[in-house]
């Protein structure tokens, strides 16, 4: 049974074009760029890291154009499960929705655990539980006030990250040409050892898989479309900017790191959440003579982590609300208060975020890594679902006699785009646990932690299918009518 909100209790369309752009862009800039990029250069060399990130960036571009076509035609706050349910199979939509909620609900806890590690850079003797409580309260408040509060906070969180990357690139270019930080570096580090490519095909594949995690979050624009002031203009505008900005921020940043720091530098391999002193950004700033680099980068990465937690809270809440509206979650989760906030869904999602308190009991780094492994694969499953949903939508659209000119935004390169994204995501999912099989014995603990999301997704999909007796929706029977309440 479908739960319908009363006319005066609906989501508020308060997100402006600038919010949409920053949500899309800010979602892809985080610890993957500030920390993991150094390990990528060390593992595959500067050329291998560039190749892997460029390939994943292209895949993300195709996914975003697919999502853009869907989100402009049918702006839905629970976009992924709604599209999957309408164009593939209601059971597939059910599994997609709960997979996405689980992913971001657990990510809240993971990011809060990471924030407690980062804050101890300045307050090493402080207690993790208090920091977790404080950060969780801030994120909850930003989401509980109005959707505009979320949009504004994400706008400024993203702005901090963007300014940091622009300064980094400027300083890096000045160093490369010898204008700052000593003699010109040029391209010398691209010929160190066996650079630019190091470690062969499997090293590049390993970086390719790590790069996928770095870009997760860009799909949040599909959720935010349901609360955009004008989705048919704002979403395409944000989508168009994503590709070039991903290219600019990721590809140029890795190029600068590879040119300034040789891949043989052992510090590149040690860049993780608990050792900000060896973030590749910190290494470059320190090489340029900026002594406060470590403290500044720690602050930037802290805002990045809180931004991810803030986005996770928003996305998980909206998808849980959408599941309730479609009868795929308890009905009370579909309630919206007078401020346009699905408060019950927000409270349940916040409760899952409380898992971060385990950080104070079992050790910060251990809990962070466990939570990250638990949610890591879910993002790739979501991407597969987006590609499949778009492919089915476009085929259904033409099968039912519609003209492509009717689409407010049309994804280019169809069907190559969604098929390419689908294939690469499947390769990443299959290859994700390759490390578990490299030793003499199979590392079952690593394999289970890596792949646990896959059987969970299949259980949700096939279980719902068996209980509800759902079938794949024939192309000519797919519901292509945009939601009247969302149509702009």
TrEMBL record:
PANTHER family on file: AMINO ACID PERMEASE, GENERAL AMINO-ACID PERMEASE GAP1
Species of origin: Paenibacillus peoriae
UniProt entry keywords in alphabetical sequence: Amino-acid transport, Membrane, Transmembrane, Transmembrane helix, Transport
Record's bilayer topology term: Multi-pass membrane protein
Pfam families, per database record: AA_permease
Main location as per UniProt: membrane
Lineage, highest ranks first: Bacteria, Bacillati, Bacillota, Bacilli, Bacillales
Record's keyword annotation contains Membrane: yes
Residues annotated as transmembrane: 21-41, 47-64, 101-123, 129-147, 159-180, 200-221, 242-261, 288-308, 341-362, 368-393, 413-434, 446-467
Subcellular location as annotated: Membrane
Record domain Amino acid permease/ SLC12A: where: 19-472
Annotated InterPro entries: AA-permease/SLC12A_dom (IPR004841), Amino_acid_permease_CS (IPR004840), APC_YAT (IPR050524)
Protein name: Lysine-specific permease
């Amino acid at each position: 049974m479908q739960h319908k909100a009363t006319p005066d209790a609906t989501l508020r369309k308060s997100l402006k074009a600038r919010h949409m752009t920053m949500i899309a862009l800010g979602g892809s800039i985080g610890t993957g760029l500030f920390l993991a990029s150094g390990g990528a250069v060390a593992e595959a060399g500067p050329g291998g890291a560039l190749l892997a990130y460029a390939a994943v960036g292209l895949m993300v571009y195709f996914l975003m154009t697919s999502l853009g076509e869907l989100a402009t035609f049918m702006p839905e706050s629970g976009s992924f499960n709604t599209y999957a349910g309408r164009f593939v199979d209601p059971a597939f939509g059910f599994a997609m929705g709960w997979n996405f909620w689980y992913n971001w609900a657990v990510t809240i806890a993971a990011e809060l655990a990471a924030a407690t590690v980062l804050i101890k850079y300045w307050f090493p003797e402080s207690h993790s539980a208090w920091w977790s409580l404080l950060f969780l309260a801030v994120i909850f408040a930003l989401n509980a006030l109005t959707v505009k509060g979320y949009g504004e906070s994400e706008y400024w969180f993203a702005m901090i990250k963007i300014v940091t990357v622009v300064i980094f690139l400027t300083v890096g270019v000045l160093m490369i040409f010898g204008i700052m930080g000593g003699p010109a570096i040029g391209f010398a580090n691209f010929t160190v050892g066996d650079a630019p490519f190091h470690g062969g095909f499997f090293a590049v594949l390993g970086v390719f898989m790590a790069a996928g995690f770095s870009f997760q979050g860009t799909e949040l624009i599909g959720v935010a479309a349901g609360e955009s002031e004008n989705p048919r203009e704002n979403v395409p505008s944000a989508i168009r900017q994503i590709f070039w900005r991903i290219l600019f921020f990721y590809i140029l940043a890795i190029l600068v790191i590879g040119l300034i720091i040789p891949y043989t530098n052992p510090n590149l391999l040690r860049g993780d959440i608990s050792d900000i002193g060896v973030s590749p950004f910190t290494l470059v700033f320190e090489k340029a003579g900026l002594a406060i680099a470590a403290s500044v980068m720690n602050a930037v990465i802290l805002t990045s982590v809180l931004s991810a937690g803030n986005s996770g809270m928003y996305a998980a809440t909206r998808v849980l609300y959408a599941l309730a509206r479609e009868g795929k979650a308890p009905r009370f989760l579909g309630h919206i208060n007078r401020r346009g906030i699905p408060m019950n869904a927000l409270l349940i999602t916040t409760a899952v975020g409380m898992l971060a308190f385990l950080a104070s009991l079992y050790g910060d780094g251990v809990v962070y890594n466990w939570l990250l492994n638990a949610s890591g694969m879910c993002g790739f499953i979501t991407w597969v679902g987006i590609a499949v949903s778009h492919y089915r939508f476009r085929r259904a659209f033409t099968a039912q006699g519609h003209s492509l000119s009717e689409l407010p935004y049309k994804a280019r390169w169809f069907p190559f785009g969604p098929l390419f994204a689908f294939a690469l995501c499947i390769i990443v999912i299959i290859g994700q646990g390759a490390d578990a099989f490299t030793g003499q014995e199979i590392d079952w603990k690593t394999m289970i932690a890596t792949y646990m999301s896959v059987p969970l997704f299949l259980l949700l999909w096939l279980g719902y299918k068996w209980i509800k007796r759902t079938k794949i929706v024939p192309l000519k029977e797919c519901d292509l009518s945009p939601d009247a309440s969302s149509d702009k």
